[in-house]
Design goal:
This protein is an alpha+beta fold. The chain is built from 16 helices and 20 strands. Strands 3, 4, 5, 6, 11, 12, 13, 14, 15 and 16 form a 10-stranded mixed β-sheet that branches.
Length: 520
């Protein structure tokens, strides 16, 4: 059982750490696991919940990046394809292969894009999940029952992967903790400690009690996603060095509708929409995800609102390829994530489609190591790169290479269920029997969610609030926001019994309304 008081007692008793990490998203958690697995003493602090931000709002794809191939970014695609295989092997209960179909509505599309996807196969090599196939018109319609028939000439089938991003983040946190890392959510980094002009630790605050702590560390890693510039600015102010922003946020919007609009186990890729963007229609946890967009944004809201143009774009483009298309009233949930895209020198960030999707690592004069950019698929390689940079900068003593390539994550267990299937016990992998042993197994709050799951989340999965449970331990807020709101009171009651703290019910109901409402 995870005791929050014990976590803070451990923090108070520690004289210092080798590494202190700001941010509990994909990047920070990946670094924590890699470092802990190599024997470093690690502490990670997340100001909200693990994967609260961008890391829980992906398109749920573990992919090499078909669009990056079109841009000629071969190195990024090759790395991502091999990392895809590693991720699927290390977390088979929450990351699995997924077949895609790209329907063709012009004579040239299937051969043109098909040859590109054959290159995808070639780059994957032994890491491939299945070979690319050219499909006839009838074969395409069989795989995509609701695809628009008018003008359809055929299609191309290829393979990528999909996953549950928030539960993968949780698995990383649990595995890192098993390796000795100290990870605390709802504990904000409020400042940097400098000694002799060098970063020597963090000031952090427990957001539940308000108590503050000073944390000494040999290496401080800034993995705060789109908020990395905030800590770079702190560093610059204390060392009297000017800091130029390195992140240009890009907003990605996703809509969720019922599976009836594409009753298939195959995802759809539309490689080029009206404005040149890619559109995915992806089966996930019993629903369909439609997305995504790539729109510049100036502010860094914790809960960014969708733009009306983006939701209209997604519904409008989906309607071009579906016989029966979803309308605004069919949308069950809408969510928005901010991508921390990296600005080139002297770039104002105006066109985010052209900004770097690769990760960037900077080490300041004072030794603050900042990492941002990248994507979920390559989180493990990013973490390895971060530690290599820390070694090169003499922030840490050199250790043996990463062991995370063949390190199964917490709960790792093969399953005959797919991520595209409705939620259930299969999402817990090898921990399913532990969940079933909890009180309340027979008390189903809604399909796929029981009282036992809520109690398990509070005791073993760091859940503190209704949002933690309904957004990231289960994914109900992302699947059906109104249904999530309807059971929120029951979840709050159980959490209060388990944790003894305010589960923030009212705040969740406000958030659920946002997820359920399209912009006018």
């Amino acid at each position: 059982m995870i005791s929050r008081s014990a976590l803070f007692q451990q923090l108070a008793n520690a004289a210092s750490f080798d590494i202190a990490i700001i941010g509990g998203g994909a990047t920070g958690l990946g670094v924590a696991l890699d470092a802990a697995a190599r024997g470093f003493k690690v502490a990670l602090f997340e100001s909200h919940d693990f994967a609260k931000g961008t890391s829980s709002r992906a398109t749920k794809l573990v992919h090499g990046g078909v669009r990056y191939l079109a841009q000629g970014n071969i190195s990024l695609v090759r790395e991502a394809l091999h990392e895809r295989t590693t991720l699927l092997a290390n977390a088979p209960h929450i990351a699995q292969p997924l077949p895609f179909v790209m329907p063709s509505y012009a004579w040239w599309q299937a051969p043109f894009y098909g040859m590109g996807l054959k290159m995808y196969d070639l780059l994957a090599g032994k890491a491939g999940l299945g070979r690319t196939e050219f499909l006839s018109r009838s074969e395409t319609l069989k795989l995509l029952p609701n695809a628009r028939e008018s003008g359809l000439t055929g299609g191309v089938k290829y393979w990528d992967g999909q996953f549950d991003d928030a539960r993968l983040a949780l698995a990383l946190a649990q595995t890192a903790a098993q390796r000795g890392a100290l990870l605390i959510n709802y504990c904000a980094a409020t400042g940097l400690i400098h000694e002799g002009g060098k970063v020597a630790g963090l000031k952090v605050q427990d957001k539940e009690t308000g108590q503050s702590y000073s944390v000494k560390a040999n290496c401080v890693i800034n993995a705060a996603g789109v908020w990395v510039d905030e800590f770079r600015q702190m560093d610059g102010e204390q060392t009297k060095r000017p800091v130029k922003a390195m992140v240009a946020p890009s907003q990605g919007t996703h809509l969720v509708v019922d599976r009836e609009f594409m009753p298939s186990d195959h995802a759809i890729l539309i490689p080029k929409t009206a404005d040149g963007r890619v559109l995915f229609i992806v089966p996930w946890l019993g629903k369909l995800i439609l997305g995504t967009t790539d729109s510049p944004r100036d502010d860094l809201a914790r809960e960014p609102m969708a733009f009306k143009d983006d939701t209209g774009f997604i519904l409008g483009e989906a309607a071009k390829y579906l016989t029966r298309a979803p309308q605004r009233s069919d949308v069950k949930s809408i969510w928005v994530g901010l991508r921390p895209l990296v600005k080139p020198p002297d770039e104002d960030g105006g066109n985010t489609k052209k900004l770097s999707r690769e990760h960037t690592i900077l080490v300041s004069k004072s030794g603050l190591l900042t990492v941002t950019g990248g994507k979920w698929t390559t989180y493990r390689a990013m973490a390895e790169d971060v530690l290599d940079n820390a070694f090169d900068a003499k922030l840490l003593p050199q250790r043996a290479g990463a062991v995370t390539v063949k390190l199964p994550l917490s709960g790792s267990l093969g399953t005959n269920k797919r991520i595209s299937d409705a939620p259930g016990m299969h999402m817990y992998g090898s921990a399913a029997s532990e969940v079933q042993a909890m009180p309340g197994t027979a008390n189903e709050l809604c399909a796929g969610l029981t009282e036992a799951m809520v109690r398990y989340a509070a005791r073993f999965e760091y859940a503190r609030t209704v949002e933690d449970m309904l957004a990231r331990r289960s994914r109900l807020l992302f699947l059906d926001a109104k249904l999530a709101a309807s059971i929120a009171q029951s979840v709050a009651t159980i959490l209060q019994e388990e944790t003894g703290v305010d589960p923030q019910l009212d705040a969740f109901l406000v958030l659920a309304k946002q997820y359920a409402t399209l912009p006018d």
